[in-house]
Design a protein that fits this description.
Shape: globular
Number of helices: 10
Strand content: under 5%
Structural class: mainly alpha
Distance between the termini: 41 Å
Order of helices and strands: HHHHHHHEEHHH
Radius of gyration: 19 Å
């Protein structure tokens, strides 16, 4: 526990100022964190990041992460989708060149893994450009959901939520997490400048984000259980890897962005 607290304190002291500042430093950090996250997934599948498919997947990720800004997009001579389709053709060609040592299943894994990480961190960048308040709202919902699920689950948890994937999570804990997210959303609406949503809207959004945050957590747990690893990485002592810490945000931020734009 002491190690977790120390790591969290240092990480927040470094990460939060960059999130608050925004701009190119924030985008650069998103590129770095997303690259590490994809590396963690590739390592689960025993695919080297320095291999041909590893390098192409990183290039795919970096293209996905390009912010939706006219000055940036005008400098790219092709659309993102065109690059991704070309990358798929390269992957499929590589299966032939390796006599299926790099298989069709590997192609599917890399494409899904890259989209999983890329879309999540792309919408981290896009949501930050919409407004810092929304990022902190997402943080508040996720933190309150995690805390509520943990403490309510320990105190009242009796019915397993999904034992095959995450044996310690309970239905009671999940409901407690949603309830705490609702409370956090009410407080956020009362004290933070988030005027685009009514109180009723905020409550609905908090419930949706809390549910998807828990799904994101379960998805990461499913990855780790399938590939028989305890943590996605070891870059954050006491916490695991990047994906262990950002699994909920990867799901929550795209949903939040879509709701903002409705």
């Amino acid at each position: 526990m002491k190690q977790r607290i120390i790591t969290a304190t240092i990480a927040l002291a470094v990460f939060l100022p960059i999130v608050i500042y925004g701009g190119l430093p924030f985008i650069a950090v998103m590129y770095l964190i997303a690259t590490i996250g994809l590396y963690e997934l590739l390592r689960m599948k025993h695919i080297s990041i320095l291999s041909f498919p590893g390098v192409i997947s990183i290039l795919m990720l970096w293209v996905i992460l390009v912010p939706d800004h006219p000055m940036l997009l005008d400098r790219i001579p092709f659309m993102k989708v065109e690059f991704l389709l070309f990358a798929v053709l390269l992957f499929l060609s590589y299966t032939v060149l390796t006599n299926n040592k790099f298989s069709f299943d590997d192609v599917g894994f890399i494409i899904v893994a890259t989209l999983y990480v890329g879309i999540g961190f792309y919408y981290f960048i896009e949501t930050r450009q919409v407004g810092l308040t929304y990022i902190f709202f997402a943080f508040a919902v996720i933190f309150s959901t995690d805390s509520g699920a943990y403490f309510v689950g320990r105190k009242f948890g009796k019915h397993k939520l999904w034992p095959e994937i995450s044996p310690n999570k309970t239905i009671e804990g999940s409901i407690g997490g949603i309830a705490c997210a609702i409370i956090a959303a009410i407080l956020f609406k009362l004290f933070a400048p988030i005027d685009d949503f009514t109180m009723i809207s905020i409550l609905g959004i908090a419930i949706v984000l809390s549910i998807f945050g828990q799904i994101g957590d379960l998805v990461e747990s499913a990855f780790k259980r399938h590939y028989a690893v305890k943590d996605s990485g070891r870059i954050l002592p006491g916490h695991g890897g990047i994906l262990d810490r950002f699994d909920s945000l990867i799901f929550v931020l795209p949903i939040l962005y879509f709701l903002i734009k409705l």
